[in-house]
TrEMBL record:
Matching SUPFAM superfamilies: alpha/beta knot (SSF75217), PUA domain-like (SSF88697)
Enzyme class: transferase
Lineage, uppermost ranks: unclassified sequences, metagenomes, ecological metagenomes
Full protein name: 16S rRNA (uracil(1498)-N(3))-methyltransferase
Species for this entry: freshwater metagenome
Function recorded in the entry: Specifically methylates the N3 position of the uracil ring of uridine 1498 (m3U1498) in 16S rRNA. Acts on the fully assembled 30S ribosomal subunit.
Length: 240
């Protein structure tokens, strides 16, 4: 599997030369120990990509030549995960896991029982999504939005073709929500805080058209529930 680097100035002409410098150049040359003649991928994080061959390795740079370019279309279903704010370290873990699972958008939510604060840390979480996208070979970096109010999350739920709210006291199984034939272009998953959703929040989401459902018998941490729900959704909608 070819290593992937995300760059702002993606070269898109076959035969053109490009210098991978900065932290990425150092990582490729000194950490990954990429050699001349090897190939690697570049992307702009918005779907466009270029396959390149290494011409020369410097101390902290890689000189590349573009051998192929392309564009990855977005999937037919957009998955948005609303994540109630966990503690800072758990927030990073949640972003990393959901990025690897294929979330298109992650919305940080200030739920009534949220214990985390991310107003000053959203940019750091975007870096986490950036790095996780490289690791999982994603040509599209998920959008990280924060911090949303309950009213804003309710609006997201209303606009979605399918909205799922995870709640440990529900008796509705997640697997029962997927029709045999579907036309779902947008799906929203709401993950509550460690302390659980309040009755008011559940009522608001239900009125907005969300399905309140149980993810499974074992109760996952808030930071881990997102990746499990995305996996179930991808399977249920036959995206995977």
């Amino acid at each position: 599997m070819l290593p992937l680097f995300i760059v702002d100035d993606l070269p898109t002409s076959v035969g053109s030369h490009y210098t991978l410098a900065g932290d990425d150049g150092h990582h490729g040359a000194r950490v990954l120990r990429i050699q001349a003649g090897e190939q690697l991928l570049l992307t702009d994080g918005q779907g466009s990509w270029s396959r390149t061959q290494v011409l020369e390795v410097g101390k902290k740079t890689l000189e590349l030549s573009v051998v192929e370019t392309g564009f990855e279309e977005a999937l037919s279903t957009t998955i948005t995960v609303v994540q109630a704010l966990p503690k800072s370290d758990r927030a990073k873990e949640a972003i990393e896991l959901m990025t690897q699972a294929g979330a298109d958008q992650i919305v940080l939510w200030n739920a009534e029982r949220s214990i985390g604060k991310a107003e000053k840390g959203v940019d750091k979480l975007r870096v986490v999504a950036h790095e996780a996208s490289k690791q999982s070979r994603r040509f599209r970096i998920p959008r990280i939005d924060g911090v949303s109010s309950t009213a804003e999350v309710v609006a997201l739920v209303k606009a979605a073709d399918l909205a799922i709210v995870l709640h440990e006291e529900s008796t509705v199984k997640l697997s029962t929500l997927f029709p045999t034939q579907h036309n779902i272009s947008s799906a929203v998953i709401v993950v509550g805080p460690e302390g659980g959703l309040t009755d008011t929040e559940i009522a608001l989401f239900t009125q907005a058209g969300a399905h309140i459902c149980l993810l499974g018998r074992p109760i996952l941490r808030s930071a881990h529930a997102g990746i499990a729900a995305i996996s179930a959704l991808n399977t249920g909608l036959k995206i995977w």
